Amino acid sequence: MRAPHSRTVVLLSLAGIAAAAAAQTPGQNNAITDVPGISVGHFTGADTGTTVVLAANPTGGGVAGGVTQRGGSPVTRETDLMRPDNMVETMNAIVLSGGSTFGLAAASGVMRCLEDRGVGFPVGGGNVVPIAPTATSFDRATCNAPPASRPDFTSGLQACLAASGGPVVQGNVGAGTGAVSGGVKGGIGTASVVLPNGIVVGALVSLNSEGAPYDSGGDLMAASFELGNEFNPLTRIGGHRFRVPPSLPGGALRSGTNAVVATNVTLTKSQATKIAEMADDGISRAVNPAHTPGDSDTLFVLGTAQVAIDTLGDANAVVTQIGTAGANVVSRAIVHALLAARSTSCQPSYCDAFP
Amino acid sequence: MRAPHSRTVVLLSLAGIAAAAAAQTPGQNNAITDVPGISVGHFTGADTGTTVVLAANPTGGGVAGGVTQRGGSPVTRETDLMRPDNMVETMNAIVLSGGSTFGLAAASGVMRCLEDRGVGFPVGGGNVVPIAPTATSFDRATCNAPPASRPDFTSGLQACLAASGGPVVQGNVGAGTGAVSGGVKGGIGTASVVLPNGIVVGALVSLNSEGAPYDSGGDLMAASFELGNEFNPLTRIGGHRFRVPPSLPGGALRSGTNAVVATNVTLTKSQATKIAEMADDGISRAVNPAHTPGDSDTLFVLGTAQVAIDTLGDANAVVTQIGTAGANVVSRAIVHALLAARSTSCQPSYCDAFP
User: Fold this and answer.
1) Whether A153 contacts chain B with CB within 8 A
2) What is the rounded distance in angstroms from the CA atom of residue A137 to the CA atom of residue A210?
3) At what angle do helices B153-161 and B106-116 cross, to 10 degrees?
4) E-strand spans in chain B?
5) Residues 255 to 294 of B: which have CB under 8 A from any A CB?
């Protein structure tokens, strides 16, 4: 049985930074929307759906972003554009969806929504091209039955129209509607942290992993990353009587944890890419195995340009700080996804499997 | 004034391999469809369109592929999946389209077309996910007027339904409908070569480059790559009286030469990727400047698995041979695109600009 809190306190006391660590608290909604400039919308269909994370800088323009793609079965759009050597620096949205490769169609609906608002990369003549990099995964909660529907243009359009700040609904919604994580129901999770120097880092994950998010005893892999008592339902865990063997379908295009990490700091694409590489470790710590050949695992980072990085100190140190916080917040968002997920006819939730 | 033929003959005679070089001839249609397993379809709209290259191995399954993405304004789908470290080895189609980022929607229509035929990566329950990596570019032949239409789901569906072997229509069709190359009209071009050992290499390009395909005297950059007298209209070039300054819009997401190279050899994803990197030099030699920040330049390679690579000799030597041939055939396809293009109200063709 883990005792994460006491262990954490000992370590932090030894390092003499307990006060600083204690100052790390979740944001107001413990959600990616705690990052100014970020809004989130879901479209939830019968057994699949789409989630969009909209991003804007203080003047409404796009924001720099980065991506890392480590699962062996990626389904992506516009990730090449995000490479630091490529030109466009301004992302307007990140789209996460179920529906495997078919779900990429949702991005076109998000583009329409943004274009109607005049949001996008200007290409002359008053025209804009909304930049909405996308990652989808194969959501299996239909229990191998043919899906009743697929995310499409309308799913993306509706998710975008529904986007708002404030609290974010988690669990069986949006891109997480049909998600599975190992042997239990996956879903959407979100979390945030406010650092003592004012940096805000938030994450939203669509947890649909081939690997399991709990260890052989049934404990959540990422339990020790809790801030305060945000994982309060974990106290319900007793004897793990209903051990659920992780489901390992072993095929490509079958699963995948896709995520968005956002911060209020102004980033370059290179900095955002490095932060993505670090924040991706938050998946590694919360799911085992992660990044399998069958997983789509793709993680995006956005910096909403509210705070200049130079005002925070050495840029590399700030990138390290955001990357570290990003990994932790991704792990926490994965736990939130599991705790918010509800059982379906063929897939128990974590809370039902380990009551 | 260039004299490519006499120079070539001298060099080859010195090397004593004139006979081998002479044995390199275009395939029956001088088109990518000369590669067994490849078919091509266009959808041509009012001022933009979509082109699909379908690929199948001898049993109708998908084929391994690779990609290189060197333009600074890429618009892509499923390029991550093509990385050798990722799992899916079987591409079913490559989609090229106009319409910039909006044009990515065409890929969904191609997927529908293929799914209806049962073509795709099997994901259980008899379901398939067609793998159709895609690159689009911004076609500017509307002369900065708003586009009358955009490639969409239907464009991709129609292009796929129209796909066939045999001759390939070139010029102002499909993804090349609204294409521009420097100061002249761009378009679709294709070419092929049959090597003495039976390797067939074909290319299809959507030429929509920021850079110009001709030098300061008006000569085509890639004129010296001619096989036989395939560039016959070039004999029309006289005094270059109508020098057309290359149009360099200098903005991102404005242009891009996207291409598909196919060969009848069985390739791994790693081999296909290396061939893509070599074949991309065919763009460099035919367009100047190439791979600018504003270009989408993305080049795909497919191996249709008709001939085992081991039967042809050392695998690395064969990859080098295909990569070399691929670059040449890309350059030739670019010339074919220019010679087939027709002038529009705002964009002269090469043949009209240099009568």
Assistant:
1) yes
2) 11
3) 40
4) 38-44, 49-55, 65-69, 76-77, 93-97, 121-122, 128-129, 134-136, 180-181, 184-185, 187-194, 200-207, 258-265, 298-307
5) 293-294
pLDDT digits (tens, 9 = 90+) for A70-84: 999 999 999 999 999
Number of C-beta neighbours around residue B3 at 10 A: 9
What's the pLDDT score for residue A253? 62
The two tokens of residue B126 are 């008899």
Can you read off the two tokens belonging to residue B37? 């397993």
B 75-114 residues inside an 8 A Cβ radius of A:
75-81, 83, 85-88, 100-102, 104-105, 107-108, 111
pLDDT score, position B218: 80
Report ipTM (2 d.p.).
Answer: 0.81
Q: To the nearest 5 percent, what fractions of chain A are helix, strand and coil? A: 30, 25, 45
CB A246 within 8 A of CB A182: yes
Q: Which two tokens stand for residue B18?
A: 């004139």
The Cα–Cα gap between A332 and B302 comes to 42
Q: If you write DSSP's letter for every residue of B177-198 in order, what string do you get?
A: TT-EETTEE-EEEEEEEE-TTS
What value does the mean pLDDT of chain A take? Answer: 88
Instruction: Return the bridge partners of B40, or none.
Output: B53, B164
Nearest-CA neighbor of B107 among B86, B127, B135?
B135
Contact B124 A144 (CB under 8 A): yes
**Cβ neighbours, 10 Å, residue A83:** 16
Chain B neighbors of A249, CB-CB under 8 A: 124
What gap in Å lies between CA A239 and CA B256, rounded to an integer?
60
Render pLDDT for A146-159 as a digit per residue (tens, 0 to 9).
Answer: 666 899 999 999 99
What's the confidence (pLDDT) of residue B252? 58
- The per-residue DSSP string of B137-157 comes to ----TTTTSPPS----HHHHH
Sort strands A258-265 and A298-307 into parallel, antiparallel or unpaired. parallel
